[in-house]
Specification:
heterotetramer, A alpha+beta, B mainly alpha, C alpha/beta, D mainly alpha, C: alpha/beta, Rossmann fold, 4 domains, eight-stranded mixed β-sheet, 25 strands, D: mainly alpha, MetI-like fold, elongated
Chain lengths: 544, 336, 630, 285
């Protein structure tokens, strides 16, 4: 029985009046916590792993769901994916290897000479839990559904030249060909996150003419057949997974059952981790993690991450349409103070718009440091002595709020007066749609670890995440050229040119790349840092 | 009979109010800035994807047509599909109303029992030390912000003393509770699942305590005030002057007269508690109705917001109706 | 040894109010004793002392002997037994003294179970008997009624049955007659007489209206400022009172024979401790030095008859005293000159109050026609529910006639509830000036005219700045009258102006009204349920019953030779009505049909119109015959 | 003879406790108001000023009486400046609610008929509307910040006042002194203004202080959910929500002091309200 954390009781007594007042209402039970509820917070059974997430998934239908990271992470583990990333160790911690993508449920996935037509070969005799065999027809039906849903998959397929269901051709029961309009170096990575297959025979039983793709059935029924099967799902509270023995591929699940419980408040996740009620807290915030490092029985797994924190400056609205004003803000941002105060030093300063560890990264991409005089000089160069504008960030994002406060007080010294505006998700999305946000803090990870994908999502005309409304004909031209450049050294050549242009245009203030830290019980092992932010649960084991 | 006719008449009066609420919400949520569609699009979505998603939810059609569709759906009990989750709003709501109602009903019931017992005692010992103490204590409880109180109770009850379970979820999944109404303790009772019952009651303890502390004061004051009014009234003095024994005086003349005003105040407090459960649920990660409605609001999930507001309003007016009927039964002077 | 013997009982409340000082009197079984005096005189304090429920923080000395045991020192259980079974009280406002959320029957059963140990069916049976004994018809159904469903009279009867349900030895009735009509009062007092004579109970009737309870009392005790000023056999005390205050009580109220009202100046003092001098001296016309220097003790005036006065009176109460200041002697008033132009014409006015739920409604006035000429003084009399208040509201425009017409010159109204008629948050000056404000009179002139009219009311100008709750009943009514006069209206309506006031204050207000009405520049209408008061005021009188005028004529003619059976019953000239007034009575035919001893089929069928009989008119075809039948 | 004031020994010093409540309540509010208004005298830091020398979440003591919060701002000074926002908005919101509610109440109560039904159905709708939805709607329509919050909270509280005043006016409009004013020819407006309104505000005067307390709690609740005052600005509810995560780690000074400040201030209002209620009851009896 894990003893309740000693130091937290001491801190309660420190609470002075309030604590005493409330303690007076209940005798202070000394000694070990005798938790009367019969909840299973007893010793972690060797075969069960308990993970806490911040919100319950909004739907089980991977095609028609909204952009919900918890759900996408869960799908990665419960839907049969044909191919997936390998694993490599870097600096003592294991991370997903984006260059080594291997078949898991499928037998092989190889391109033709021109890398335009990709052939997927299925293993024989792989069965869904319903007993139906996984065949090419299932792949075809699943991808036709993805195109019909016009959601995530359709969006990514467009970057590798797959725009119409007709481009997916069934050759025989166990072979499917993907005919791309143009060859692309991104195909393997993009297919790794999109090539999932439904049990189409089972699904068609629930399709109706009003609902051809059985959306209602999919939304309600947890899927099975991936590395794990969903055995129990209590709405809004908890999801239980058990390893799928029918998985034919390498690295089968190490833990027999995994229980994912929903704990929205970060403070509660931390309490339960300390008390041993959960093994992994996916929703803890940086300050909790720094404290948990000092707690007995808890380890913090940390690994380099490609998640970037930046301020996107709107290049189409005054005064940030003037590059000198953008440079002024770049010089006025207190990079070291943010890394120290907000992330407790646990973040890497970055010198380019391209994230660290992404092939093609170069030091010259973002030559700006915290220097108030240079900031003033840059502002003067733009013909202004002082400007005022609005810095937008997400209401419920603590880090962004702290960064905003620090940037505001430093920028003021350089004559840049910033009004802080926290926005709820819907208003933020609306104003981004209307492109009327002068400055906004963004933090996030790219799904594919390749500069072409970065340009596709954030820097070309009309890209969805291009909140800076940045366009540069040279960049557009390089982006088109990169589609067909497969050779890595030629691609790196292109990326160097991109970063030189970015150093000049500076559409973003690139702040830092915070490391990924995951507080877990000491007994947990096998964590693989996911480049796309979607945890692979099959590598996880617990030795308690 | 009489009560039925009164209830039917009041229900008919509800329709314009609820219709007003539906129209007001429908317009209000569309006037609010914020785009419900962009939040569900992936990083690579294009304008075409946005338009397609919008069409899927019928947002491309003219406003009045959206309203008529919504109304015709409402009549058949179809609240539409949630933009965020793609599931039917009715289904999602059914799963979440149970836990919140259980919390609020339990808290209001307990608070009313405490208020009645303590209120009557306090009135009978008016202006003595005990009476003053109770009133000030109740006021302190009523002055606390419920989210802050919840936090402190978790800190003391779970982290410090360990008497109460972790503030996550409502019942321990291992007890295999089969959900019927969604209200865990009630379902456990119905299915006779004892371990689930004890587990859900322990999970309910702190949130209910938080709510009770906050809402007991107004109820206590009302019972005490009306009890005092009865004790100092002519009829009570007349009964006492005719030498009726204390027990008969209390049972026959004090209790019923003092509780006449309690139902309508309980309804008001019920309405107030629905508001504060949104905060209590957040702190106790109760996954109830309040959080779901709030999330719908933050993401402008039109069908969710419209459905949640309508249900809250409906609960509100139904509770007032029940209060009026109970009031009429208690007080013969009220003709219905 | 008498059932109840109170010996020099003194009660001081909160150390600053001497509610009672050395009160002594006795009540024997089977005897009805009347305890009279104006409000604030201490009558209620005596009642409370008898049942041992004196107010918080009050100190009582002396002895309240009940069956030889002193109530003031009774133990808790003895007191619990004494309350109800020893002495039981009937409360003043019966509907207010019954628990609203419990049926009348159950409240009676509580008494029967507590004091007579009855239960179940036997208790229910005796409950029905008790209800029938006090004259409640269909008693079994009434058992299930809630207090708010009972009429005033019915509630009073239930109250009496509750008290007798305790099988008390002494029955205390507090103001049993207030708010009841003439006919109902007589009926209720008969109940108390019956309780004393047949049940052998002692009865203590507490009342401010000495004339009302005179008929049934064996002995009278008169209280003034917490002291007994006179006690003696009713026959002697009522005809030739020894103490001047008792005489003032008897003469302040006009009586049916038209005797002039004697006005007693000043008001009753609120004593801080036992008086050292005669408390009535400042107001007494016969007071001399000894009255102002020492306090008179109760001195024998005859068999069991004492009075606390150095110079007791001996002649009959009717005999005029040189010092009397009288009002309303009808003979002295000159008849109005030729018919001056009318200030009010009411032609066949009907008023129906529609109830919220649309079915039926209360038909308050059923075709009333009335004209008032300038300078004329009209009296309107009728029991409660006859529509007289509706008539008042109709005349001043507060109510609109459903049919028929009302044309009135500029009118003003003086209300029954003096303090209630003044806006609580505004000063007296504002209240008086209100009508001028509506006429657009500038503030300075308003203040002047308000002060002038206040002087006419013989009120000190310091009152102008006071708020209503700082005024006494009398002062508030004078302000009400001042407000009515300030705009010099053509018509003034007095709606029961004195019924809410104390007896001596009533006389003062009647004097003021008389002086105001004497001014012939405006007409005046005086509305009351009390015939004697109307007689002292009006030239012509109109008798209302259930929304119709049943008799009308010169005041002397109507009082001397009443024609209509209802007027005769009011003047108790040998006509006793069959039963209480019921709501449903006023359907077709003669309104009084359901209660008239001379009713015939023709009365029930035919609507009665006013016909001329001598100088007055009456709405009854049998008037000529009735003369012999009486 | 009214027996209701019978000699019950238990009922001592009737009504004196009412004055004790009023005095303590008013006393607390006075102290809080003074501290909040003279705030700048007690502290060197501005409400949003960051102390570069002190680390974030510094322990209480030394330069910072209550330590610093997660942004490195001084908790004590934010506590004082926040008081202005909270007290200001609460009192303003209740004032607006009282005016709006009273006008509606008088019109509905005095004229009755269809006007009364329409107004009452309207107040039903507003009262049935959940507070948060209304607050967000008004915040969106008028833009965020203290002004719109005042309006939002006022709208939520106005129906209660409308109902209260309507009940009083319906009772008063048939009283004798109103008839008296009518007979002396007073205009309807004059009648309402001089006679009906002043006498129908007694219950409002009693409920208003209690309502200020609740208004503050509503404001704090909104800020806690991120719907009220934007985060970096000083407001007690926002400060509590900022520090919730830290309390668990024993860093109580970010969240507990604003909680206590809110508790004390609302308690002040509640005591004042309760005391006025006690005295009003005693007067009416």
């Amino acid at each position: 029985m894990a003893d309740s954390p000693h130091f937290s009781r001491r801190s309660i007594l420190q609470l002075g009046g309030v604590g005493a007042f409330l303690l007076a209402t209940g005798a202070c039970a000394s000694g070990s916590k005798n938790n009367p509820s019969s909840s299973s917070s007893g010793g972690a059974k060797s075969s069960t792993l308990k993970i806490a997430v911040s919100s319950y998934i909004s739907s089980w239908d991977q095609d028609f769901v909204g952009f919900d990271l918890t759900a996408l992470m869960l799908y990665k583990n419960v839907f049969p994916y044909m191919i997936d990333y390998g694993v490599k160790t870097v600096g003592g911690s294991k991370i997903l290897d984006t260059e080594n993508i291997m078949p898991t449920f499928a037998e092989s996935f190889e391109p033709d000479a021109e890398q335009k037509v990709w052939t997927l070969k299925l293993r024989k005799g792989v069965k869904f839990p319903s007993g139906n065999e996984l065949k090419a027809a299932d792949v075809k039906w699943s991808k036709d559904r993805a195109f019909a849903a016009q959601a995530n998959v359709a969006g990514i397929y467009r970057t590798i030249g797959l725009t119409k269901p007709e481009q997916v051709v069934v050759v025989d029961d166990y072979t499917v060909e993907f005919h791309q309009e143009f060859p692309s170096a991104l195909t393997r990575q993009i297919q790794a996150i999109s090539l999932y297959v439904f049990d189409s025979v089972e699904a068609k039983k629930h399709a109706t003419d009003a609902d051809p793709w059985a959306k209602e059935w999919f939304a309600k029924n947890p899927p099975t057949g991936g590395y794990f099967n969903v055995t129990k799902a209590t709405q809004g509270q908890e999801i239980e997974l058990t390893a799928n023995d029918a998985y034919p591929g390498p690295d089968p699940a190490k833990t027999k059952t995994i229980r994912i419980s929903v704990v929205p408040a970060a403070a509660n996740q931390r309490l339960q981790l300390q008390a041993g009620d959960i093994d992994i807290a996916l929703g803890a915030n940086p300050r909790d993690i720094r404290d948990l490092k000092k707690t007995s029985g808890v380890a913090v797994l940390s690994a380099a991450s490609n998640s970037q924190v930046a301020i996107q400056m709107s290049t189409t609205t005054a005064p940030f349409d003037d590059v000198n004003v953008r440079k002024a803000l770049a010089y006025a941002t207190p990079y070291e103070q943010i890394i120290k105060n907000v992330y407790g030093g646990d973040a890497r300063p970055t010198k380019s718009v391209v994230p660290l560890d992404m092939p093609g990264y170069s030091e010259k991409g973002y030559p700006y440091t915290y220097d108030i005089d240079k900031a003033k000089a840059a502002l003067a160069a733009s013909g202004r002595t002082s400007i005022s504008s609005e810095l937008v960030f997400q209401t419920d994002n603590d880090e962004q709020q702290q960064i905003a406060v620090l940037v505001q007080s430093e920028a003021r010294k350089a004559g840049i007066e910033l009004k802080l505006t926290p926005l709820d998700p819907a208003t933020l999305a609306d104003r981004r749609g209307k492109k009327n946000i002068p400055l906004q803090i963004t933090s996030g990870q790219l799904w594919v670890n390749d500069v072409e994908y970065m340009l596709a999502t954030s820097f070309v005309q009309g890209a969805n995440l291009n909140y800076a409304n940045y366009t540069n004909p040279k960049i557009e031209q390089i982006y088109q050229q990169s589609h067909t450049t497969v050779d890595t050294s030629a691609r790196n050549q292109l990326w160097a040119q991109v970063q030189d242009i970015m150093a000049e245009d500076v559409p973003w203030v690139v702040i830092c790349q915070p490391n990924f830290n995951l507080p877990v019980r000491e007994s947990v092992a096998g964590w693989v840092q996911p480049m796309d932010g979607l945890a692979r649960l099959r590598y996880l084991g617990t030795s308690a | 009979m009489r009560v039925l006719r009164f209830v039917v008449r009041r229900l008919l009066q509800l329709i314009p109010v609820l219709l007003g609420v539906v129209v007001l919400t429908f317009l209000l949520v569309r006037v609010l800035p914020g785009d419900p569609i962009r939040t569900i699009l992936g990083p690579n979505a294009t304008a075409a994807d946005e338009a397609a998603a919008g069409a899927r939810f019928g947002l491309d059609r003219p406003l009045w047509q959206q309203f008529t569709d919504y109304l015709s759906g409402l009549v058949t009990g179809d609240f539409g599909t949630s933009i965020q989750s793609g599931q039917s709003v009715g289904g999602e709501m059914a799963l979440r109303i149970g836990p919140t109602m259980e919390l609020v009903v339990l808290a209001v019931a307990i608070a009313m029992v405490i208020a009645t017992v303590v209120g009557l005692w306090s009135a009978r010992h008016a202006n003595r030390a005990g009476d003053h103490g109770i009133r000030v204590l109740a006021l302190v409880g009523n002055s606390m912000p419920e989210f802050w109180l919840g936090l402190v109770l978790i800190l003391v009850g779970y982290a410090g003393l360990g008497w109460f379970p972790a503030p996550s979820g409502r019942v321990d999944p291992d007890t295999d509770l089969t959900p019927i109404t969604g209200a865990d303790a009630l379902d456990a009772l119905l299915t006779g699942n004892m371990p689930a019952l004890t587990s859900s009651l322990w999970h309910l303890a702190l949130p209910v305590l938080t709510l009770v502390i906050v809402i007991v004061a107004p109820l206590l004051r009302s019972v005490r005030a009306s009890a005092l009014e009865v004790l100092r009234s002519e009829p009570y003095a007349a009964a006492e002057a005719h030498g009726l024994p204390g027990r008969l005086l209390r049972r026959g003349y004090l209790v019923r007269a003092a509780l006449v005003r309690l139902p309508s105040l309980a309804a008001l407090v019920f309405g107030f508690s629905i508001g504060s459960t949104v905060l209590v649920e957040y702190v106790y990660s109760w996954q109830g109705f309040g959080q779901w409605a709030l999330r719908g609001l933050l993401y402008r999930d039109y069908p969710v917001v419209q459905a949640s507001v309508l249900v809250i309003a409906f609960c509100y007016v139904v509770v007032f109706l029940i209060a009026d009927v109970v009031h009429a039964m208690l007080d013969p002077r009220v003709r219905i | 040894m008498s059932l109840l013997s109170i010996e020099n009982l003194s009660v001081v409340i909160g150390g600053r109010v001497a509610a009672l000082s050395d009160v002594s009197f006795t009540v024997d079984a089977g005897e009805v004793v009347g305890l009279v005096g104006e409000s604030g005189g201490g009558k209620s304090m005596v009642g409370r002392a008898i049942v041992g429920m004196l107010p918080t923080g009050s100190v009582a000395t002396g002895r309240v002997g009940f069956d030889g045991v002193d109530v003031l020192t009774m133990s808790a259980e003895r007191l619990a037994h004494h309350r109800g079974h020893g002495a039981a009280m009937c409360f003043q406002n019966p509907r207010g003294a019954l628990s609203p959320t419990r049926t009348a029957g159950r409240q009676l059963l509580d008494r029967l179970r507590t004091h007579q140990g009855m239960d179940g069916e036997r208790a229910r049976e005796s409950a029905v008997e008790l209800f029938e004994a006090v004259g409640i018809r269909s008693a079994r159904r009434r058992l299930g009624a809630y207090p708010h469903e009972l009429s005033g009279g019915m509630a009073q009867r239930v109250m009496i049955s509750l008290a007798t349900g305790c099988a008390p030895r002494l029955l205390i009735a507090d103001e049993p007659t207030t708010g009841l009509d003439v006919t109902l009062t007589a009926e209720i007092l008969r109940q108390f007489r019956h309780a004393a004579d047949t049940d052998g109970r002692g009865v203590l009737l507490v009342s401010h209206d000495i004339n009302a309870i005179a008929a049934v009392c064996d002995r009278i005790v008169v209280l003034y400022a917490g002291t007994v000023v006179e006690t003696g056999p009713a026959s002697r005390v009522l005809t030739a009172p020894a103490h001047p205050y008792t005489r003032a009580l008897l003469r302040s109220v006009p009586d049916l024979d038209g005797r002039p009202v004697v006005v007693t100046p000043g008001a009753m003092p609120l004593l801080r401790e036992a008086p050292a001098v005669c408390p009535f001296a400042p107001r007494c016309a016969h007071a001399e030095d000894d009255c102002r220097t020492s306090r008179p003790r109760l001195a024998e005036q005859g068999a069991q008859w004492t009075a606390a006065c150095f110079h007791p009176l001996h002649d009959a109460v009717e005999a005029g005293q040189a010092s009397d200041v009288t009002v309303g002697a009808p003979a002295r008033r000159a008849a109005p000159a030729a018919r001056a132009e009318p200030v009010l014409v009411v032609d066949d006015a009907h008023v129906v109050y529609k109830s919220r739920f649309g079915r039926g409604g209360h038909h308050a006035l059923r075709g009333v026609s009335l004209t008032v000429a300038k300078g004329e003084r009209i009296g309107v009399v009728g029991e409660s529910g006859c529509g007289k208040s509706t008539l008042a509201r109709l005349i001043v425009g507060l109510a609109k006639p459903t049919s028929g017409s009302v044309t009135a010159a500029r009118s003003s109204l003086v209300f029954q509830d003096p303090i209630g008629s003044l806006s609580p948050r505004r000063t007296v000056e504002d209240a008086i000036g209100e009508p001028l404000r509506a006429l657009g009179v500038p503030a300075a002139e308003r203040a002047g005219r308000a002060a002038a009219v206040l002087d006419r009311m013989k009120l000190d100008r310091s009152i102008l700045a006071r708020r209503p709750h700082e005024l006494s009943g009398g002062q508030a009514q004078r302000v009400g009258i001042a407000r009515a006069l300030v705009a010099e209206p053509d018509l003034i309506v007095f709606d029961e102006p004195t019924s809410a006031l104390d007896v001596t204050v009533q006389a003062q207000i009647l004097a003021v009204i008389d002086e105001v009405a004497a001014d012939r520049s405006h007409g005046s209408v005086f509305i009351s349920h009390d015939l004697a008061t109307v007689r002292g005021f009006a030239d012509r009188v109109v008798v209302l019953y259930l929304g119709r005028i049943v008799e009308e004529g010169p005041v002397e003619e109507v009082f001397a030779r009443p024609r209509h059976p209802y007027t005769r019953a009011l003047l108790s000239r040998g006509v006793a009505l069959v039963r209480d007034l019921e709501e449903a009575d006023a359907t077709a035919g003669c309104a009084l049909a359901a209660r008239c001893p001379f009713v015939t089929d023709r009365c029930r069928g035919e609507d009665q119109q006013l016909q001329q009989y001598g100088e007055s008119r009456a709405a009854c075809w049998r008037v000529p015959e009735i003369g012999e039948l009486v | 003879m009214s027996l209701s004031r019978t000699g019950r020994r238990r009922e001592k010093r009737d009504g004196r406790f009412g004055t004790v409540l009023v005095v303590t309540g008013a006393g607390i509010l006075a102290v809080v108001a003074l501290a909040v208004l003279l705030g700048p005298l007690f502290t060197a830091w501005g409400p949003n000023e960051i102390d570069p020398s002190a680390p974030t979440l510094a322990e209480p003591g030394g330069a910072h009486l209550f330590g610093t919060d997660v942004n490195g701002m001084d908790v004590w000074s934010r506590l004082l400046y926040a008081g202005r926002v909270d007290l200001g908005i609460a009192i303003a919101a209740v004032a607006v609610a009282v005016v709006l509610g009273s006008v509606l109440g008088v019109v509905a109560g005095y004229f009755g008929g269809w006007l009364d039904d329409v107004l009452m159905r309207l107040t039903d709708i507003f009262q049935a509307f959940p507070t948060f939805i209304l607050a967000l709607a008004v915040a969106a329509l008028l833009g965020s910040g203290p002004v719109n919050l005042t309006v939002a909270i006022a709208l939520v509280n106005a129906p209660a006042y409308a109902r209260l005043v309507r009940a009083e006016v319906r009772a008063i409009r048939d009283l004798t002194y109103v008839d008296a004013a009518r007979t002396s020819g007073a205009s309807t407006i004059g009648l309402l203004w001089r006679h009906v309104l002043p006498n129908s505000l007694t219950p409002v005067r009693v409920i208003a202080p209690l309502n200020c307390g609740w208004a503050m709690l509503t404001l704090a609740g909104l800020s806690f959910l991120g719907l009220g005052i934007p985060v970096p600005d000083a407001e007690w509810g926002a400060m509590i929500s900022l520090g919730t995560g830290d309390v668990v780690a024993g860093r109580w000074w970010t969240s507990v002091p604003p909680g206590i400040a809110l508790l004390v201030c609302v308690l002040g209002f509640s005591l004042l309200g309760e005391g006025l209620q006690e005295r009003a009851d005693r007067v009416r009896r």
